[in-house]
Amino acid sequence: MRCNRWSRPDAPPLVVRGHHLLCAVCARGGCNTPPPGPRCIDRLLKSMWTYPYVQLKVCADLDVIRAHYRDAYDDGDRKRLPPGFAKRRDDYVWRRKDLEVCRVLGILPNTEIPAFHAYSILFKRQPTLDGICRTGSERSKEWPECPHAKKRYYEKIAAGPVHSLQEQTLLGEKMDGRGIWAMMRARTRDDMQQAKAKSASFIMEKAERLYMRPQHVLCLLCRPTRDQVLVEDNLIEMMRRMEQDPQIPVTLVEGCCQACDPCNEYHAGEHLCYHTHVKNSLRDLMILERLGLSPGATLPASELYRRAYARIGSLKEVCGWRDGSETAPYWAPCDHGTPYFDNARREGFLAGEEDQENEAE
């Protein structure tokens, strides 16, 4: 996972029409002649393959309909028509599809969205081309159906399996070719296994300080068992290190931390999690606010957990956005109904000997 032109923080978005997202899936499914042309679709596919978080600006032409009807149809003032009006108006078949894709994604035209999220939502909500490229309407020369619509190229890809994070980490490149991993490249198993071995060993044997993103303070607790090491992250190793030394300094960092190195969805080159990048960033800040700390604050592990137990009333406050709402898939709440945080608070897990009621302000 290297840095490239699309992964730079200042990189411009890749501008794509909404229906091009569908055509790219068909191309992955075996279509050699996508209607927008191979060159256009190849550019989209290559950008996502090299960087799953590439920002896509999903476009649909709305401005063409701002022409006054008298100018457009009654020989009014033609100078007032939008540039290229006739050609844009005659593109109505594809304009409808562009707007349909925006509707499915739940975005306005010209919204920027990372490719990973765009296709995660698209495959979940639109597993077939029904309603977009296959509408069920009687075919006519005014509304022709795409010649590839019935060949099931899209369904071959979109209907692929959805894997858990643990499964993704175990499978690696074996996921290539189905579902979202037909559109984006997964980390190889060797890469993840090497990252796991190196990072876990450092935490357990060499680390004199731990670096943890604030939301992982809670993630570490929210497990039905703390006995099994996880292939997809280093949370258990961090927990064991804090059990061994309750006074080990923990620095709270925004963004990915020592827990993240082995994960399939961790981009080491740009140091971000392209699955939960945005919502975890908000959670980090929400937790820091409740702890009364700023980014980069360092305190002993036991004091960190005493403070968390005293100042965070429930998981719903931060993991459930207070009201459990889901305004968009990339803002989905985490499971906040589990008892694990409350159980850990009752047992004083990782909080050391000191009375939690005397937590220092």
Describe the structure.
This protein is mainly alpha-helical and 361 residues long. The protein has two domains: 14-159, no CATH class; 189-358, no CATH class. It has 15 helices and eight strands. It has helices at 18-28, 38-50, 69-73, 85-89, 92-105, 115-125, 153-158, 165-171, 180-183, 189-205, 214-219, 235-244, 277-291, 301-311, 340-347, and strands spanning 14-17, 55-59, 111-114, 210-212, 249-252, 266-267, 272-273, 298-300. It has a three-stranded mixed β-sheet with strand order 1-2-3. Helix 1 packs across helix 2 and helix 1 crosses helix 5. The two termini are 42 Å apart. Residues 355-361 have low confidence and may be disordered.
Key attributes of the depicted protein:
361 residues; three-stranded mixed β-sheet; 15 helices; disordered C terminus
- Given as residue ranges, the uncertain stretches (5+ residues, pLDDT < 50) are 355-361
The number of helical elements comes to 15
Structural class by secondary-structure content: mainly alpha
Oligomer: single chain
Read across the widest sheet, the strand sequence of neighbours is 1-2-3
Share of β-strand residues: 5-15%
Average pLDDT, rounded to a whole number, is 93
Distance between the termini: 42 Å
How many separate domains make up the residues?
A: 2
The helical percent reads 25-40%
